[in-house]
Design brief:
6 strands; six-stranded mixed beta sheet; alpha/beta
């Protein structure tokens, strides 16, 4: 009897783990004639990991278009590259150093030395980085620190971009939910410089935690552990590092709602592979739950 109970518990646990180990989902029912798919991505994932995702070849072959958060080729145009670069730079006359107190500069320089071996007292580093907005600096620190740990990572070959590249090679349409202007507004213009400074210094004060969080997120992603991704992204430090409700609405939930409003018509027109950040899929206001609430059947793809 005891052995049977243990076996039953083991099977239940295995089923639960298998249900969570999923990045790719099939969308069916609710008036669409052919299945569509949605995959959660992570911007620091290696493109080679695509081959480890069950069902991905079927999803690519059976769909007729790919929808990303943004059409990546749009971002690569010279006009939009300039727009993005300008959005990451402070207005004329302002520098990052001028926004920070002496104590805050010391904290930032400590992290820069940790990652680069040089800081803003170095004229070359100052020339390259001192015009960045505090938010852009935080993003660069995360990327540079990851590259230090994973030197083989190629930031010019994104996990999201892979699916768009394959679609184009196969003669399929590629589209985006959002424009570059929308993303610039949401990511860079929707936050005051004071709040950006606060978040940058929070990043510096909690650097070891932020580093650990990035490492745990990439491990959860490679394990295809959506529950783990949700738990990590929901973690709070209970200080000013945490996103406010308004910031979560602007960066995550409002965008989810906008995508969900578009998806039914997109799927009725053509079977589609949607490619969006994994953090957008999870939770009560995540895209997966939103699709189910709208009447679609969403199941793990195999």
């Amino acid at each position: 009897m005891m052995k049977k109970t243990i076996l039953t518990l083991a099977l239940v646990l295995t089923a639960a783990l298998s249900a969570n180990a999923q990045l790719l989902y099939k969308i069916s029912g609710n008036g669409i004639n052919r299945d569509s798919y949605i995959i959660g991505t992570y911007h620091l994932a290696q493109v080679s990991f695509v081959d480890s995702i069950p069902g991905i070849k079927t999803a690519i072959d059976e769909t007729e278009q790919v929808y990303g958060e943004l059409e990546m080729s749009d971002m690569a145009s010279s006009e939009n590259t300039m727009k993005m670069q300008q959005a990451m730079m402070l207005e004329d006359g302002k520098t990052l150093s001028s926004l920070l107190t002496e104590e805050q500069q010391g904290k930032l320089n400590t992290i820069l030395n940790n990652i680069l071996g040089a800081d803003l007292t170095n004229p070359m580093v100052k020339q390259q980085l001192d015009k960045l907005t505090p938010q852009a600096m935080g993003t660069q620190l995360t990327l540079l620190n990851y590259l230090k740990r994973e030197p083989s990572f190629n930031p010019t070959k994104s996990f999201d971009g892979y699916f768009q590249d394959v679609a184009k090679e196969k003669g399929k349409e590629v589209k985006g939910f959002e424009t570059i202007d929308f993303q610039i507004d949401a990511l860079f213009h929707g936050i005051t410089l004071e709040r950006q400074v606060e978040q940058l210094i929070c990043f510096c004060d909690n650097f070891d935690y932020q580093d650990s969080m990035t490492e745990r997120l990439i491990k959860a992603f490679y394990a295809q552990d959506m529950k783990g991704i949700e738990e990590i992204t929901d973690e709070k430090l209970n200080n000013s590092c945490d996103n406010t409700d308004e910031e979560n609405e602007r960066l995550i939930y409002g965008r989810n709602d906008n995508w969900l409003a578009q998806m039914p018509a997109i799927m009725k027109e053509k079977p589609t592979l949607f490619v969006v950040g994994a953090a957008h899929l999870v939770g009560d206001r995540g895209v997966l739950n939103g699709l189910r609430k709208a009447g679609f059947t969403v199941t793990g793809a195999k």
